[in-house]
Amino acid sequence: MSNEVIVIGHKNPDLDSVASAIAFADFKNKTGEKGWIPKAAGKLDNETRFVFDKFKIKAPEIIENLKGKKVALMDHCTMCQIVNGIEDAEIVEVVDHHNIGDIETSKPIRFHNEPVGSTCTIIASYYFNHKIAVPEKIAQLLLAGIISDTDLFKSPTTTQLDLDIKKKLEKITGINSKMLGAEMFKVKSNFSSKTTTQIITEDFKEYDLPLGVKLACSQAKTMNNKEFLSERGDEILKVMKELSAKNNYDLFVVIITDLFKEGSDVFAIGRTDIFEKAMDAKLKNNHVYIPGLMSRKSQVIPKLIGLKE
Amino acid sequence: MSNEVIVIGHKNPDLDSVASAIAFADFKNKTGEKGWIPKAAGKLDNETRFVFDKFKIKAPEIIENLKGKKVALMDHCTMCQIVNGIEDAEIVEVVDHHNIGDIETSKPIRFHNEPVGSTCTIIASYYFNHKIAVPEKIAQLLLAGIISDTDLFKSPTTTQLDLDIKKKLEKITGINSKMLGAEMFKVKSNFSSKTTTQIITEDFKEYDLPLGVKLACSQAKTMNNKEFLSERGDEILKVMKELSAKNNYDLFVVIITDLFKEGSDVFAIGRTDIFEKAMDAKLKNNHVYIPGLMSRKSQVIPKLIGLKE
C-alpha cells in the first residue's frame, strides 16, 4: 500500500462531505503529512456544484472503489455509507459529526466525532487551533459547508462553535452568510429540472437497524412545502414504493423540510409501525407533518436507531 | 435519566484507565459541565494502588452496573470490555487510544480516539489546550498513567506528544519519571504474593474476532522473564487451560514481557493456527519468545483482529 491517503465523504455526497474532504486534505498536507488527496464519492449535487462554480474551485475527481487504498473518512462512520471496496482498504482517520456507526479498525487510529453542526466546522477549528492560515478558497468552501449543513444556523444541530467559526470565516472571506445562504437555498430547492426520483435520491442514506431492519432515509429541503407538494405530492409515494421494491428496504422514510416554515412533511412506507413508535407520530396515508423537525441526524435517526422492539 | 455522568475505564482496570477517568471528570467539571463523577470498573491492581498511596489520592468507588446511567468511557471502546449494564445506559462521550471497537450510538456524541501512548496523554493535552491549570494530584496521576502505559516511554506506542506532555507534567509535579517508573515497575513485577491465576488475569482483555472466535489476551510485565518463568513457567499453561475451559475461549494468549530485555515470552492455547498465522510465529509446546514485542495493543491485537481466515 502506498503512503497516499484518499480523503473522502459519504456516498450521495453533499456539500459538507465534499468541502470537508478538500479542506482536511489541505490541512493534513500543511501539517507535514504529505500525500492526502481529496476525492468525491459520486456526482456533485446542484448546491455543491453551485458553490464550486461561484468560487471557481475545481471539483475533486470521483473515486468508485477504495480497494487497496488508505482512506480518511469525512462526515460518515457507518459502513454502508462508504464508497465500495472499503473491506479491502485501510481506514487511517475519521472526522465526523453523526452518531457513532459500525466502523471498526484493527489498529489504533485518530477518530474524532464532535456533535456540532457540520464536519466543516470541525476541520475549520483544526486550522485555527493549529494557527495555520486558512486559504481563501478553503475558507469559502468551509463556510458554505457549514451554512448548508446547519440550514443557515436554523437547524437544532447548530452549536456555539458553529457560530464562532462562522464569524472567523466571514472575516477571512468577506462573505455575508445570510446572502450566500439565500442563494444556496434557492439552488437547493430549485427542483424544476429534476424528476421526483432525483429529488428523493439526492440526499439519501441507508442504515442497518437492529434485528436486520434495512432503513433508507432521505431528506429534501424546500422554500415552500405547500407549493412543492401540490406539484409532487402524489408522485413521492409512488417513487418510494418503486425504490423500496428495487432495494428491499424494510422501512423507507422521506423528509421534506420547509426551511421557512421550519417543519417537515414526512412520508414513510414499509415497517411504518417502527416509524410511528419511534417518532411518536401517527401517519395518515403514509404522511405526517411534524412542526420543528429540521434535522434527520439529530431528530429522526437517533429515534429510529434507538428503538428497541 | 439524571444529568450525572459516570466517567469510567475498562474492566480489569489498569492505572491509565483509572487515572484518566479521575482527570477527565475534573477537566469536564472545570469547563462548566457539572456532574461528571469518576468511578472504578473494579478492584485496583497493585501498581495503581501503589500510585494512589504514594500521592495520597483517594481511590474512586467501584461501580458494578451502569444500568440507567449516562457514561463517559475512558481507555476503551469495545463492548465486552465495558462494565455490565451498558445495554441500558447511554454513552455520552469516549476518549481512547486503542483500535476502534464495536461501540455504536444512536445520537451524535464526542468520540476522540488518538493513537498515542496512553489515554492520560490525551486528557493532559485537554488541560494544556484549554489553558486550564492541572491540579498537582491530577498531574501526578496523569504522569504515572503515561509512564505505566508506555513502559517508561520504551513501548513502540510512545509518540512525540507523550514525551512533550511528560515534560510539562514533570515540571508541574517535580517528579523524576525514571525514578517513579522504576518504583512502579518494581511493584508491578512483584509477583511474590500472587498466584499464577492472579498474575494472568490482572491485565486481561477479551475480544470478539470475526467468525465468532472468542479471544482472551493478557499481559504481565517482569523485570526478568528468565527468573519469573523458572518459577512459574509450568503453571502458566495449566492455569490457561483451566481459564479457557471455564470461559470457552477459542484462543487464549498470554504475553509475559521482559521490560529490560525488551521482548516477550508468548503462550497460546486453543486456535493456535490463528495465532501462528497472524503473528507469523511458530509455537513450540505452546510457547514462543518474540524479541522487541512490548505492546499488546499495537503489536499483537491488530494482527489477531485483522486476520482473514
Explain the overall architecture.
- The structure is a homodimer of 309-residue chains.
- Chain A is α/β, with parallel strands linked by helices and 309 residues long.
- Chain A has two domains: 5-186, inorganic pyrophosphatase (n-terminal core); 196-306, DHHA2 domain (Diaminopimelate Epimerase, Chain A, domain 1), CATH 3.10.310.20.
- Helices cover 40% and strands 20% of the residues of chain A.
- Chain A is built from ten helices and ten strands.
- A five-stranded parallel β-sheet of chain A has the order 2-1-3-4-5. A five-stranded mixed β-sheet of chain A has the order 6-7-8-9-10, sandwiched between helices.
- In chain A, a hairpin with a 3-residue loop joins strand 6 and strand 7.
- In chain A, helix 1 runs antiparallel to helix 4 (136-149), helix 2 packs across helix 6 and helix 4 packs antiparallel against helix 5.
- The A-B interface holds A 91, 94, 97-115, 129, 157, 297-298, 301-303, 305-306 and B 91, 94, 97-115, 129, 157, 297-298, 301-303, 305-306.
For the record, the count of structural domains of chain A works out to 2
Terminal CA distance of chain A reads 44 Å
The Cα radius of gyration of chain A reads 19 Å
Q: Indicate the percent of residues in helices of chain A.
A: 40-55%
Question: What CATH architecture of the largest domain in chain A would you give?
Answer: Alpha-Beta Complex
What value does the average pLDDT of chain A take? 94
Strand percentage of chain A, roughly?
15-25%
Spans of chain A of at least 5 consecutive residues whose pLDDT stays below 50 are none
Question: Count of helical segments of chain A?
Answer: 10
What oligomeric state is this? homodimer
Strand ordering within the main sheet of chain A: 2-1-3-4-5
User: How many β-strands of chain A, per DSSP?
Assistant: 10
Structural class of chain A: alpha/beta
CATH third-level topology of the largest domain in chain A: inorganic pyrophosphatase (n-terminal core)
Query: Biggest interface in this structure?
Result: A-B, 30 and 30 residues
Estimate the global geometry of chain A from the Cα principal axes. Answer: globular
Name the CATH homologous superfamily of the largest domain in chain A: inorganic pyrophosphatase (n-terminal core)
Largest sheet of chain A at a glance?
5 strands, parallel
CATH class of the largest domain in chain A: Alpha Beta
Order of helices and strands of chain A: EHEHEEEHHHHHEEHEEHEH
